[in-house]
Q: What sequence folds into this?
């Protein structure tokens, strides 16, 4: 009965001190011993931390593991049963002589390995029955189990503590939201991010109320259905310019049914503001680069317009002469002149389409038409005659939502770079192709030029790297940014024939 009571108490022990106290107060009654000791391993020594005996034993003393019986017990993970201590060579007689001890049992106690021992001592030489030994060993096992539980709790507390420190250091807050009830268990740092004191109530409703009304609907959806993997949403707060990023995952029960969301929240206001500034700067650069391009284009454009204008004027002059003699011929000449002027109008319109300001609204675009417009722009603004430019468009491509001006600018830049890279070569070929690739559209601009210079390839999308006299070296970095703004990607691969190929991937649902 004493053992059962002790086992019950041990099961409720929350700390090592509790376990020692329980052993101290129950072990003698269980075993009928004249004294008990609790010994803890302390590095290479045995520490006699507590005792309950008819006369003092070794409480508070430390002995080397190799020289005392508790050390033997822990090192060998075995119970020592000694009916007569003076006939057992493991006993350090000098330490025992001043005590009442004549016989003893020592049991090891372990968490994952032996870390303690309990000594039971009697004042007379005696034999131990199997029943007595079984009782004492049962107590040893119960103490071991209690110690393992306490250690596990300590480890858990320690790792929770470390997690809290890491969360705090990273400016992160952690939470768990129960989907059905809407209750949230959140760290103090998480509550603080939402402007709540540690003791304040915090449920899904409280969290949503703290979010800016414009972002609330999305947040409500995420906090009911669970966040989309890999997509961390950023929310503005209602009363402060703070932006919080929320990452999390659904927790499923054994049946696979979502029951909760666990996640982390962090303040990304600074990063967001820096990104906004960065975007604004790139926007300005984009305009500057476009104006720079326009300067260079102007003379080529003048040349291009010159030809239909001169032809149109000549037709009109001829018409003037013919008017009296042959009105029918004159009308034909006037109509031809009209055709030429219409052509100049078309050229100007196409170009105007590519010089919008900054960001333009996304519209659903026919990609084949876009390619034709870009090539027309290349034709009228690039004075590199003799370059063969081919267009390959996959049949049946869907329309996609894009900023036509910006995407046109990317393709134009890529083709113009290709044309410029082949300057002075005998074979000058560019292939612009566009095809569907999974859930995206992939444009590809391949040239037969020399390929990228190694130091350019290493910093390809970093601004201000150029090999051209008068080049700004911002074209590709802007193109890269535009691709990203469309949820897409721009990358380069060297060609088998030594030239360069640039790929622009735009998601269909971007
Ligand atoms: P810029 O044209 O003003 O130099 P870009 O950012 O468009 O700026 O290009 C950066 C550099 O990348 C160019 O100077 C050139 O050296 C290299 N480059 C770009 N496209 C090609 C290409 N198709 N073939 C070879 N080099 C290229």
A:
């Amino acid at each position: 009965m004493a053992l059962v009571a002790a086992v019950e108490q041990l099961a409720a022990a929350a700390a090592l001190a509790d376990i020692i106290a329980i052993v101290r107060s129950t072990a003698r009654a269980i075993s009928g011993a004249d004294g008990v000791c609790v010994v803890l391993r302390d590095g290479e020594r045995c520490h006699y931390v507590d005792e309950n005996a008819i006369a003092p034993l070794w409480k508070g003393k430390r002995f080397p593991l190799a020289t005392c019986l508790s050390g033997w017990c822990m090192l060998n993970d075995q119970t020592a049963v000694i009916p007569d201590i003076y006939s057992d060579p493991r006993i350090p007689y000098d330490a025992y002589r001043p005590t009442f001890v004549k016989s003893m049992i020592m049991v090891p106690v372990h968490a994952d390995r032996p870390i303690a021992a309990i000594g039971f001592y009697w004042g007379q030489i005696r034999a131990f029955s199997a029943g007595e030994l079984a009782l004492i060993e049962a107590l040893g096992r119960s103490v071991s189990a209690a110690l393992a539980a306490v250690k596990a709790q300590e480890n858990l507390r320690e790792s929770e503590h470390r997690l809290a420190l890491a969360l705090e250091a990273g400016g992160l807050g952690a939470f768990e939201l129960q989907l059905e009830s809407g209750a949230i268990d959140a760290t103090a740092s998480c509550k603080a991010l939402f402007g709540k004191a540690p003791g304040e109530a915090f449920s899904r409703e409280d969290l949503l109320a703290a979010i800016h009304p414009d972002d609330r609907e999305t947040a409500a959806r995420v906090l009911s259905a669970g966040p989309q993997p890999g997509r961390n949403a950023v929310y503005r707060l209602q009363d402060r310019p703070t932006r919080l990023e929320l990452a999390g995952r659904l927790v499923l029960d054994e049946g696979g049914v979502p029951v909760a969301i666990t996640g982390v929240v962090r303040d990304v206001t600074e990063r967001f503001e820096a990104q906004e500034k960065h975007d604004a700067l790139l926007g300005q650069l984009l305009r500057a680069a476009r104006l720079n391009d326009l300067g260079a284009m102007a003379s080529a454009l003048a040349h291009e317009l010159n030809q239909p204008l001169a032809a149109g004027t000549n037709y009109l002059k001829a018409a003037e002469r013919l008017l009296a003699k042959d009105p029918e011929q004159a009308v034909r000449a006037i109509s031809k002149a009209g055709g030429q002027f219409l052509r100049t109008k078309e050229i100007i319109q196409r170009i105007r389409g590519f010089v919008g300001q900054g960001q333009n609204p996304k519209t659903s675009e026919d990609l084949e038409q876009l390619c034709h417009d870009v090539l027309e722009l290349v034709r009228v603004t690039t004075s590199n005659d003799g370059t063969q430019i081919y267009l390959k468009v996959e049949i049946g491509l869907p329309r996609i939502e894009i900023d036509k001006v910006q995407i046109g600018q990317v393709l134009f830049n890529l083709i113009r770079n290709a044309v410029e890279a082949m300057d002075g070569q005998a074979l000058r070929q560019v292939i612009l192709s566009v095809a569907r690739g999974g859930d995206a559209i992939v444009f590809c601009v391949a040239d037969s030029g020399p390929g990228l210079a190694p130091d350019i390839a290493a910093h390809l999308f970093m601004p201000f790297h150029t090999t051209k006299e008068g080049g700004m070296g911002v074209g590709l970095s802007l193109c890269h940014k535009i691709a990203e703004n469309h949820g897409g990607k721009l990358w380069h691969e060297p060609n088998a024939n030594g030239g360069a190929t640039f790929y622009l991937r735009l998601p269909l649902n971007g």
Q: What stands out?
A: The first strand starts at residue 35 and ends at 42.
